[in-house]
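Memo to structure team: turn this sequence into structure tokens by end of day. - J.P.
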Amino acid sequence: MELVFVGLGKMGRSILEGVLAAEFLPPQEIGIVERDAAYTSELAEVYGVEPLVHADIASAKRALVAVQPKQFTALAENLAYPGVGYISIMAGVTTRRLAESLGTRRVVRAMPNLAATIRKSTTALTGPREAREAGDLEFAAGLFKTVGDAYELPERLFDAFTGMAASAPAYVALVAEALADGGVKMGISRKDALTFAADVLIATGELMRFKHPAVIKDEVASPGGTTIHGLAALEEAGVRSALYRAVEEATKRGRELGEKG
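Reply from structure team:
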């Protein structure tokens, strides 16, 4: 068994679907373990993969741990087997804690975001020397590239990455909703306002691949025009500093989750 998925919630399913769609692994080389045998069998039939129990992890090359961080302590002893490499997507759970709980330093810490559900995730990866030497980091990079882009990042920056990139879909969705509300206030229909907001955010994201955000802003904001007046209102409202704070507070929370574990 090449890979066992431990937990198949929204993110676990998205990764599994990406792996199958990209043919990264054949279905017969993928197993899943869920909270009870009946549910495991049900999901295995849906995806055409193997239904397993925790003891089967012992014969797998690698396991993807996709459970809630608060569940990990109770589950760890049922997941720990020698010779297995582990990939975790649990927020705040450090490689040190993973290694101590699972009895191996073949651990990779990964942090994807919600865009994995549409295969547009930005995923950060990190792991100790043992994970690199065993090919676990390389495997994890290929795994997460089936649902977007994957980048290696020093672990000291992981909480900041979580507070920024992993949480960013929520921040950007809030901005999009507010833009749409503004359009509705000015007479645009709700349906059209949401469509326009989504289109603009997608297009701006593409522009940022080629241009710095400040350049985009300056190119849109002509002297004395509508945009510069709108930007002035945003600055007066403290939108920029509010986003700084959002990233800062989410980063702090990520550290707290790790410490509590």
